[in-house]
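Ticket #4471: structure export looks truncated?
Reporter: QA, pipeline team
Priority: medium

Steps to reproduce: submit the single chain below to the structure queue and open the exported record.
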Amino acid sequence: MFNMPGAPGGGPKPAADLIKDTSDRAFMADVIEASRTVPVIVDFWAPWCGPCKQLGPLLEKTVKAAKGAVKMVKINIDENPQVAGQLRIQSIPAVYAFFQGRPVDGFVGAQQESQIKQFVDRLAKLSGGADDGGLQEALDAAAQALEAGDAATASEIYSQILGVEPTNAAAYAGLVRCLVTAQDFARAREMLDGAPPELAKAPELAAVRSALDLAEQSAAAGPVPELMDRIARNPDDHQTRFDLAMALYAGNKRDAAVEELLEIVRRDREWNDQQARKQLVKFFEAFGPTDKLTVMARRKLSSILFS
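Actual output as written to the record:
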């Protein structure tokens, strides 16, 4: 159904083009934009990390051997903590892979060379682009169906992909999102808890786990008109505004939900042990670090906190 060829042909690219150091400031260009055409591996490391010194050279060796099918950037988290913080990286070495602007694979901790090769080989298949047997097109079609509210069609496509590639993190997470959309929270959590070991720490599953947590929480929110009326009568009723944000999120009004939480932070950033800010972070995790709303809301939040 989906043929997954190896890396595209052509001569090897210079190592300088394949592997580079990056920073928080250059992350968007070096990783997100660069991954539009070829998978980019991000190695989060620090000078004091012993396992990092073992893993880094193995990654570089394997990336060079792929001859342009993937690229790699290295980011020193001591000097550049922002992106690592956004991705909630708690231990290093941590490796994320991005393709077409979003995380698609990853792992934490030292790995054997054979495991690293398997990791890079999986990514190299993605870089086949239009020759990947329709896999990326299928993932895009499923995502579009889910966004349009057609969870049944999305679920069918994701299931077909997993039938061919059982460890495809994007498809597995997508299938869980379909269950979340259908409010089948029990099956969604069961699927997350039963994920194959090689997928358990994938960024996509971390994002959908946050989405599930939020969906369960927002299911108990009250009716939007009633909450809005109460806010109109008392704009400083932060708990009602918080409940309104969750009700809006439940209704798939993400932008409006984010704005309500930002308004709480504007009015009282310390309210309820910074609950509004913490909930925004959960939103960002669920949306993903490259989502346009995440980027915009983070900018607004920083402006409020540091004004």
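Status: closed, not a bug. The export was complete when the record was re-opened. Leaving a note from the reviewer for reference: The domain at 224-305 is CATH 1.25.40.10 (Serine Threonine Protein Phosphatase 5, Tetratricopeptide repeat).
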